[in-house]
C-alpha cells in the first residue's frame, strides 16, 4: 500500500496503484500559452481493471475488500467535497478556448492566469483544505492513485461514454436505459470493449476514443493532490471493477513544473519541450508512471500560428487553423508505451529540406543495401506482446531499410544541419536495419533542441532530440550520437526495462550498438580499420569508467541495485526507483559503460556474428514487451549451451557485472590489451613527442633557441581526445605547448568531445 512506502529523498516514488486499475489510453486536449508559460486543458483516461484485482476477485470480492477498507480509513478526511450532481446536459466537446462546462455564470473566485481564467472559473471545485466530507462518504471507498506533480488540478469527472451516438455496438444490448448501477456497469462494459478491440480495427478504435472523450460528464469525482500523486474516488464505490473506467481531468501545468522547460531557441524565439526530467511526465499530465502501464494516446495541441508542434506520435501532423492566429496539431500512437516516453516540443522550428540531388543519392542508399533477411529466421513467429498494429508483422515494413525522416532546427542552424545531419541519417538508419532488422517505428523526426539541453541526445518514439554540440567538427560525434539514439528504438523503447533501476538494458545496449551501426554506416572502412576504431573507443570508455568509479558513491555504481528484488512491486503496484532523484546520478555514465563492457565481453566470448544473431532473435521475441536482465541473459545462454560448461552462467554475470560496484573483475584483466591497438600506439608516440618538446622548452627558459622541427602526425578525433587526456596527466605544460597544440590540431574547429 502507498502509505507504507517510505522513499528516501533521493528515490523517485511511483505512486500509481496499477495493480487495481491500469490505464490503456489517454486523450490530451491542450493549449500552450507562452505568455504565462502554462499548458492547460483536459486529459481523458480509459482504464481496465488491474491484474491483481482480477485475480483476487475471481475467488470473491471479500478477499480484497479489506485492502480498500484500509485505504478508505486513511484517506477519507483528505478529499475535496464534490457534489454528486448530474451535469450530463453540459457538453464538454473540446474546442479552442470554448470548453462548454457547467457553472460558467458562477462568480469567479479563482486566480486568473493569462487567457485561461474561463476554465478555472467554470471548475467550481473546493480545495481539500477548505472542505472535507468524512461523514457522508464513509471509509470504504476505493481510491484511484495517479502519478502527479507540480500540476493545478481543477476538476475531475466521470465521462458518460454511454451517451455517445452509435456506441451501442460496444454493448451486449442496444438498450441504454436502466438504473444507476446498470448504467455504471454499462459504461465500464463499453470502455472494456473499446480498449480490447483487435489491432486491425485501430482506426475505428481511435475514432470512438475521440467521441467518448467529448461525451458529457455524468458527475464530478472527489480528488486530492499530494506532492507526488493525484488521488480520486467516487462516493460509495468500493472496488476497482465498479470505479468509473473513463474519467476526465481538467488541469494546468505550472511554470516551475519539472517535466518541461520553457526557454528560447538559438535564434531567440520562445519554445517549450520535454527534456528528459528525472520525474518524467507527471508534471505535464496526470498519469500512471510505472513501466507496466503500457498505453496508447491521442493528443490535440493548440498554439499560436508560427509555432510548430512536434510529438512522439506515429503520424506527421499537419496543422489545422481553428481561428485567426491559432493552429491545432493532432498526433496519435497505436503501440502501447509507458507514459514516460510521451514527448512534445513546441517552437518556431524550421524544417531542413533536402536538395533534390542529395535526396536521389540517399534513396539509392536504401535500395543498395545487402539483403539480410536470411538472418531474420524468426520473423515468422507470432509476436509475444499485447495486440497492436505491429511493424514486425507487416511485410512492407520488414523490407524498409530507411524509414521516412525529417529534420527540424532553429533558423540559425539550418545550414549546418543540411551539411552534416541530413546525409548521415539515412546511412545510420540503413546500418541499424542491416544489424537488427525491422524498424520498430514508422517514421523519425530529428530536432536540434535549445542550448540548455543537458545531454547530447534523447530518443523517444518517432522523434530524437539532438544537442547543437554534435554539429561542429567532423561527422564522428554527430554520426555516433545519431547511431546511439537510433539504437534506442529497439533497446529502451520497443523493448523496455520492467524495472527502471536496470537502465543498462537501454543505455548499455545503445552504447554497444552505436559502434556496430557506425562501422556499417562507414561502408568504405576495412575490417582492420573498424576494429582499430572500436578498440580505441573501448580504451577511452575504460578510462572514463575508471575515473567515475574512483569519484562516485559505490551504491551508484551497481547496475542492478535491487538485486533479487528487481522487478517486484507492492501489492497495489506502487514502488520507488532507487536513487531516481539523486543529483549526481543524472550525470553518471556507469550504466552506459559497464553495460557496454558486459555486452562487448559476451560478444567476444561468443563471436560477433553469433552474438548479433542472438540480438536479432531477442528483438523478435521481446519487442513490445518489458524485460529484466535475466530475460536477455537466459535466452543468450540457451543459444550457446557450451558456454555453461565453461562457467558462464546468469548467476556469475550477476555477481561479476550487475550486482557489484567498481570495475568488474573480467574487465580489469582486459584493460591493458587495448593499449596494443595501432591507433593507441600512434597516440602514445605523439604523447612522447609533446612531453619531450615541453621539457626542451622549459629547459631553454626565456632564451630564444632555434626550434627543432618536430613532425606531428594527423590524428582522428578519438585519438585527439586520448592525446589531450594523456597530456593532462602531466604536472605542468608550458603556455607555448598549449599554443602549439591549438595550432597543430586546430582544436577550436574539432568536435565537442575534443573541445571539452
TrEMBL record:
Residues 110-119 have a biased composition (Basic and acidic residues). GO terms for molecular function: metalloaminopeptidase activity; zinc ion binding. Gene3D superfamilies: 3.30.2010.30, Neutral Protease Domain 2, Peptidase M1, leukotriene A4 hydrolase/aminopeptidase C-terminal domain, tricorn interacting facor f3 domain. Keywords: Aminopeptidase, Hydrolase, Protease. Residues 439-657 form the Peptidase M1 membrane alanine aminopeptidase domain. The keyword Transferase does not apply. Residues 107-126 are annotated as: Disordered. It comes from the Eukaryota. This is AMPO Aminopeptidase. It comes from Oceanites oceanicus. The gene is Aopep.
